[in-house]
Write a structure and sequence with these properties.
The chain is mostly helical and 127 residues long. Helices cover 59% and strands 0% of the residues. The chain starts with a helix and ends in a 5-residue tail after the last helix. The N terminus is likely disordered.
């Protein structure tokens, strides 16, 4: 314990120990499996309405945001960061938040699609 205190401040240790734990469905730091997500109006849809809603949601499962290494603005911000650090850090922070929100949006749409597909399977729409 003595060596641990040498490298970490007591405030940091207190924050790590007393940090509130989020429920499992709210922890989004790592990929999570796609679980079906249902809405109240889903059960009232017929096969044609389900197919139309699935087609709408399918087009929303694609991301237009380039990856970290493909984004030219990331490369530019890192290069500018060698000259002016706050500029690079501000864009890299923005990029991380934007990617988090994009992944959250994609996961929500994939969960909705999974739920609608299960309802469609229960209705036996392809028979």
């Amino acid at each position: 314990m003595m060596q641990l205190q040498r490298y970490t401040s007591p405030l940091l240790l207190m924050l790590l120990v007393s940090s509130p734990q989020l429920p499992a469905d709210e922890q989004r730091a790592y990929p999570r499996p796609v679980e079906p997500l249902y809405e109240e109006s889903d059960e009232a849809m017929d096969c044609r309405q389900l197919e139309q809603r699935l087609a709408e949601l399918e087009s929303q499962t694609y991301s237009a945001k380039p990856g970290f290494y493909e984004d030219p603005y990331t490369g530019a911000s890192i290069w500018i960061g060698s000259l002016w650090v706050p500029g690079a850090l501000s864009y890299l922070g923005y990029s991380a938040i934007a990617e988090y929100q994009e992944n959250d949006r994609l996961h929500y749409n994939q969960s909705r699609i999974e739920g609608l597909r299960r309802i469609k399977a229960n209705l036996r729409c392809h028979e």
